[in-house]
Amino acid sequence: MLPTLFPHTYIRAADLEKLHLLFNSVVVLQPAPAELSEAMRKWTDEQFLQTRIPIDKDNQRLEQVLAGYRSWAAEQHLGDLAFLKSHSPAPPFRDASLPSQIRSQIARNLKNSEDSFKPDRLLNDRVFLSMAHSFDQQNDDLSQDLGKFSVWQQELLSDLCSTDAVALHNLTDAKVTSHDNREHYMIEQRLKAWAHLWHYDASPSKVYVTTSKDAYAHLFEYATGAQELINYDHLAIPHYQAPEWQKWQQRFSNRMVDLLSCQWTQSIDLHFLETDDLNPSSGLSISIGGFPNRSPLEVFNEIADLTNAPQSLSPENSHGNTLIIYLGPPK
């Protein structure tokens, strides 16, 4: 079982650690060749994280669009967030709506031929995912910097030995932990763009995992035939260094494989997930469900609003069930 992460293309170190508790390896799709973050590179080197680029063409054109936007944005004192807000399903540079002025300005600045800016939804979605990736990474870097500042502040306040100082630290720390809200940002647009990119994946999975509760909820709300099997607000998992952990992970993997082909009923037993380990990990929240008797192609066609999918699924992926898993912090 080799799950694919959705709909983000950037993964934080904390999320990689959660994924590692359940899986031997995870695939993350990339909209274009790019340098990985230090955390993603580390887990790639350890062969846990597999990066895959479904579309490896028109990269020069894509880079040209990104460079053009960033050049224009620098002049206008804008960041990646402005581009994400300007995203729409329409092809880049062609619609006359107010958000498209950013795209139109890029086209004029690049001074390319008319043919270079033919309507291309796939290119538009790859540009959007690339900018979203950059936005997520910058947001994560900022959160880490704030976290380091918080540690320094805690040490300083501890030296002061003041109750008021400790209260001030708790208030500041709360602000730090609530800074990263990418999981709530433009989930619908991310899902549509990611699903379009996914259609070009040469080795699609039937198991999909997300660390975004909003993405999981959106998929279950808007795709036909969704069924949730189990939900844990706080599931303790054996510590990854404990002998029991690998056995637990193997039981989990075997059961997920079973769920891909069996008939789903309300009586499906997943209580083996609970552990009696006396030294569990910090735990996580987990939801497991999906789409019985629907292939990933049917599900993501619907999400991406595609009528003619370019992907040709292998026979083993064209029938059966599609499994969706959410992992998050324990409640």
Structure notes:
- The chain is an alpha/beta fold.
- Helix content is 47%, strand content 11%.
- It has a domain at 4-54 and 188-328.
- It has helices spanning 13-22, 38-45, 59-76, 80-86, 101-110, 121-160, 163-177, 187-198, 213-222, 243-259, 296-304, and strands at 4-5, 26-29, 49-52, 207-210, 227-235, 284-291, 322-328.
- A 5-stranded mixed β-sheet has the order 1-4-7-6-5.
- α2 links the parallel β2 and β3.
- The longest helix has 40 residues, at 121-160.
Helices, by number, come to 11
What oligomeric assembly is this protein in?
Answer: single chain
Mean pLDDT: 75
For the biggest sheet, the summary is: 5 strands, mixed
Largest sheet, spatial ordering of strands = 1-4-7-6-5
Radius of gyration: 22 Å
Task: Sum up the overall morphology in one term.
Answer: globular
- Strand % is 5-15%
> How do the SSEs run, as a string of H and E?
EHEHEHHHHHHEHEHEHE
Q: What percent of residues adopt helix (DSSP H or I)?
A: 40-55%
Span between N and C termini? 27 Å
- Beta-strand segment tally: 7
